[in-house]
Amino acid sequence: MLYGKENREEADYLEPIFGAVCEGEDLPKYKLNPQSVEPRMAYQLVQDQLLDEGNARLNLATFCQTYMEPEAVKLMTQTLEKNAIDKSEYPRTAEIENRCVNIIADLWHASKEEKFMGTSTIGSSEACMLGGMAMKFAWRNRAEKLGLDLNAHKPNLVISSGYQVCWEKFCVYWDIEMREVPMDENHLSINLDKVMDYVDEYTIGIVGILGITYTGRYDDIKGLNELVEQYNQTTDYKVYIHVDAASGGLYTPFTEPDLVWDFQLPNVISINTSGHKYGLVYPGVGWVLWRDQSYLPQELVFKVSYLGGELPTMAINFSHSAAQLIGQYYNFVRYGFDGYKAIHDKTHKVALYLAKEIEKTDLFEMINDGAQLPIVCYKLKDDPKREWTLYDLADRLLMKGWQVPAYPLPANLDDQIIQRLVIRADFGMNMAHDYIQDMKEALLALDQAHLVYHKKQEIKTYGFTH
Ligand SMILES: *Cc1c(COP(=O)(O)O)cnc(C)c1O
For residue 114, which of 13, 89, 143, 292 is within the disulfide window of CB 3.0 to 4.6 Å? Predict the structure, then answer.
């Protein structure tokens, strides 16, 4: 058998990549290629496959970080192989996690009299799961002591209908009834007139959201705390608050330091945040903290031996890279309070600018104008003559590379289609000017279009509204 150039899988070193044999072949997609491929070829093939995907920095759908400084990336690349769970092998990394928990506890005004506890997680989803589990176990311990028949009803969790999907998961996984406090036109965050109607002896806790994913609005956590305070005076079945601060937790302390939403409120017992949202780290890192160890039932804490001693850990995942938490620590060291504040203040300004410019078109009704979280969302004003929808606008913007999802609001308000822009640190004022220019062109094109493809009531999915 003679082998010629045609039968070769590997390329000559000098052969140009796009002239090489293996680049010209269609590799199997759903089973392993029998032969190996040269690294430079494999690199090119995979890179090319990702070529026509969305550009992360133009993705205005996500809260997750899309930029980190080269030094942070270098550090994270150098530490990818460290397993965050190996606390005894990597005690310095464990100490870095510990410092981050302390830094965050300080930002969230943990009380000196109490013993806060906290851990890193993969993101807010894992953090909420841990916060929810702690609430469930703590509730059961309290209710058992008070003699409640634990089997008479399912335990329940009270939350506004603007919840993020992780809470639905939590309730399904742990067999908990989710009691949704509906949002309505006048209540685009938790309705304080209604919330306590949903609470009873089987309530494991109430979740307040600092930054509703759909709209960027804040629940009034201070008001909620007062209601809980009054309620707890009337009953032995105490109820407490967990704050889902996935996006606000590392934003609000810098932009609105006087807003009281955190451990300053006595009934807020635990808080989570996503380090990879306004903590400015690439996904995935999150954090969850309890104001005092008494709110974290000991059954949920597992001991891992650590340098001869024992380090308590609490996590759903086991192995994962420590690179993200090292990236978080880099940001804390690098930016300090002033740096985070400067970055977030600028992001806030960009959001306000965009909201103002979008409002000027007179086509939209603003639902969130970036006043708190830098989220701009709006719906179309009624106009029977207009033939296009927000989905058409999303398509038009996509032609320029901008990913701006349109989607319906949650239950009760789901007849309203909105569009949302999440502004992040790497979306500068200059990009914002470009965006407005592209948006105006898109609007003009739509107004002059002869063909409109989306039915007015059609719901299209443009990805996850995270
Ligand atoms: C993003 C988000 C989550 C989920 O966070 P991940 O870090 O993506 O797991 C939970 N709750 C709220 C309010 C969010 O905005």
Answer: 292
